Predict the structure.
Amino acid sequence: MTPKSFLLDDDVHGYLLDHSDPLDAVQQGLIDETEALGGMSSMQIAPEQGTFMTMLTRLMGVSSAIEIGTFTGYSALAIARGLPPGGRLLCCDVSPEWTDIAKRYWDRAGIADRIDLRLGPALGTLQALPLDPAYELAFVDADKTGYPAYVEELYPRLRTNGLIVIDNTLRGGRVLPGREQDDEDRMMGAFNHALAVDQRFDTVLLPLADGLTFLRKR
């Protein structure tokens, strides 16, 4: 089959952004401040991912969401903006330095009251949560070797038809056999294969940014 998806060059990416909802001052400010951090700014999700996640949260009618890996808060901003009044987002991260940036922009956006930030290893935070299926949406964008454990802990806490969205599952194409460059690439390739045959989920991996995998709990 001839692929219809492709990696974007700068011109096509610019066109894509110009023909989606425009970034507001809060979003642009957060992008700019994160870029000033240097190389680690690559951990921030792409603007089109954020726009998509806000729409997805609204379309699903999500009232309770959880995020593993917050960084400077762009993805949390996107999800929180899609929540209805009274909706809640639990954010898990280990860095007070990065999440202090996030909190400033959540305040500016007027959505800080929707977010519960918990600092510490995300696996411990997850394991401390009740086993009740309380969440409709989860976003995972943290340490890659932790992904399998995060999915296992999220599964019993996710409602039927709930969605886990996992970032960076293509790793620039390095998940393909023979293209791996490190243990994280090899781990992600094995993880992707395991998800594709996991009967607990409907699974689709889409070439959005560096790969987004969607898991719908059956």
